[in-house]
Design brief:
The protein has about 290 residues and is of the alpha+beta class. It has two domains: about 5-80, Outer Surface Protein A, domain 3 (Alpha-Beta Complex), CATH 3.90.930; about 90-275, Rossmann fold (3-Layer(aba) Sandwich). It is built from ten helices and 13 strands. It has helices at about 35-45, 50-60, 65-75, 95-110, 125-135, 150-160, 190-200, 215-225, 235-250, 255-260; strands at about 5, 10, 20-25, 25-30, 50, 80, 90-95, 115-120, 140-145, 165-170, 175-180, 260-265, 270-275. It has a seven-stranded mixed beta sheet, covered by helices on one side. It has a three-stranded antiparallel beta sheet with strand order 5-1-6. A three-stranded antiparallel beta sheet has the order 2-3-4, covered by helices on one side. A hairpin with a 5-residue loop joins strand 12 (about 260-265) and strand 13. The longest helix is centred in the C-terminal third of the chain and has 14 residues, at about 235-250. The chain starts with a strand and ends in an 11-residue tail after the last strand. About 25% of the residues are buried.
Length: about 290
């Protein structure tokens, strides 16, 4: 039986015959009393998943198919995706000698499910050759330090075209980030969506002062010197959390969590998680 997911939503201008539902996909105006009552019921029960039987019990069997089609077309609900792919090995690529040495020293001997590779640049025959040798049951993790946005975009596009299972990691704005795990056929938000949303949210100028923020300076540095190393992997607390993140990614049993969640690691070695969303200008849904 199919399971449907209800994206987190809020109900605005709520009345019995006219309501507005807003979620991550946009805004929908509802005028059907039964559908409005249905969303109020979901809100009351704090229900973010339901089966076809729940729809049948609420609307009746005769209306079930048409109601489901309307809710799907309006992006008010989504079919639950099955991410039960158990990859057998995690392969890490990095352009940082320090990160490569650190992971080899601390992790490689203790975890046979992790493999590490150093590449001087991702846009190289060496990287492409190694990717082509990998089997389909591999998770590919790309760690960029320094972060070159052109190289990042190229690598993401290359892996997307191969329908590879992958995620990315990089230092940015004095923190370290891991994107969600992405695979083209799943149509979930991709690592390009993540970094684009991140940069868009951080890039700004002072609201009350006619001076650039720290983020603007960082962007200038990246534009002028794309090999400038913002993070040199000398922070023990952050390093330990980065290694922990790599080990957690190597556990395929947690794939459902990491397909929709990105990770932010601060200088104190603390991790924060948040949901990934599609960036409206990304081509990952094409």
């Amino acid at each position: 039986m199919k399971i449907y997911v209800v994206p987190q939503f809020v109900i605005l201008n709520n009345s019995s015959d006219n309501a507005v539902v807003q979620n991550k996909n946009g805004i929908s105006q509802l005028t059907d009393k039964n559908i409005i009552a249905f969303f109020n019921k979901l809100d009351e029960l704090h229900k973010n998943k339901f089966t076809e039987n729940f729809i049948k019990d609420f609307f009746g069997s005769s209306q079930c198919a048409s109601i489901v089609n309307f809710l799907l077309d309006s992006q008010l609900i989504e079919e639950e995706k099955n991410f039960n792919l158990e990859y057998k090995r995690t392969v890490v690529f990095t352009n940082s000698q320090k990160m490569y040495s650190l992971m080899l020293k601390v992790i490689a001997e203790k975890n046979s499910n992790l493999e590490f590779n150093y590449v001087n640049t991702f846009q190289s025959k060496e990287f492409v050759s190694k990717i082509n040798e990998l089997l389909n049951d591999r998770l590919i993790v790309l760690i960029f330090s320094p972060l070159d946005l052109n190289e990042y975009t190229w690598a993401c596009d290359y892996l997307r075209k191969r329908n590879a299972l992958y995620c990315t990691a990089f230092p940015y704005n004095s923190k370290f980030y891991f994107s969600n795990i992405y695979k083209y056929e799943w149509k979930n938000a991709c690592p390009k969506c993540f970094i684009s949303e991140l940069i868009s949210s951080l890039r700004s100028t002072g609201k009350f002062y006619s001076m650039p923020t720290f983020q603007t300076v960082i962007d200038i540095i990246y534009n002028e010197n794309i090999k400038f190393k913002i993070y040199d992997f000398n922070n023990l607390s952050m390093n330990l959390e980065i290694l922990k993140a790599a080990l957690e990614l190597a556990d395929s049993k947690r794939i459902e969590f990491f397909t929709s969640t990105h990770r932010e690691i601060d200088k104190n070695g603390s991790s924060n998680f948040d949901q990934c969303v599609h960036w409206e200008l990304c081509n990952c849904l094409e």
